[in-house]
């Protein structure tokens, strides 16, 4: 990691400290996103598929008159085959004026992280692009992988959602 990249990572990690994060699970890992992006949390319900959409776009739902694209995060992040049960939820996000649904295995709680609890994300070379990571939040024996949901949901492939939902 270069000095500028490390400094940028430390700055980003510092900026999130003191913020509240919604903790959710995908497989065995626990992730956190900025609670200010969360509009609501709903139980998983069947979606309307969109022809020729990428696999990670499950489809769309009608949320009080708004057509909301729904992204399955297990598929998006290559975390195995998704299963849908009574714990599966859709987190409705408001990002850059868009409303997007995000399917996760479950949600647990809202956590506030202090500056000492947020560490820069290590370069791991995994299937998960570290550009979307803010850092790692540590809480006693828990570790939250902090996701920059704005970057993840406004990546180039996510632009496809708007075109398909239109």
From TrEMBL:
Its main location: cytoplasm. One of its GO terms (cellular component) is cytosol. GO terms for biological process: chemotaxis; signal transduction. The keyword Cell membrane does not apply. Gene3D superfamilies: CheA-289, Domain 4, SH3 Domains. Keywords: Cytoplasm. Residues 18-158 form the CheW-like domain. Pfam families: CheW. It is found in: Cytoplasm. It comes from the Bacteria. This is Chemotaxis protein CheW. It comes from Thiobacillus denitrificans. The lineage of its organism: Bacteria, Pseudomonadati, Pseudomonadota, Betaproteobacteria, Nitrosomonadales.
């Amino acid at each position: 990691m270069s000095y500028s990249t490390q400094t940028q990572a430390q700055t980003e990690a510092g900026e999130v400290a003191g913020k509240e994060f919604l903790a959710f699970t995908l497989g065995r890992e626990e992730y956190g996103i900025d609670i200010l992006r969360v509009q609501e949390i709903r139980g998983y319900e069947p979606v309307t598929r969109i022809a020729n959409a990428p696999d990670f776009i499950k489809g769309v739902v009608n949320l009080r008159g708004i057509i909301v694209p729904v992204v399955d995060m297990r598929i998006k992040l290559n975390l195995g085959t998704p299963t849908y049960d009574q714990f599966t939820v859709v987190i409705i996000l408001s990002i850059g004026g868009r409303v997007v649904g995000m399917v996760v295995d479950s949600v647990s709680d809202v956590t506030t992280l202090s500056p000492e609890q947020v560490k820069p994300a290590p370069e791991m070379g995994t299937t998960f692009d570290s550009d979307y990571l803010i850092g790692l939040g540590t809480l006693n024996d828990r570790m939250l992988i902090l996701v920059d949901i704005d970057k993840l949901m406004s990546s180039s492939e996510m632009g496809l959602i708007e075109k398909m939902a239109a």
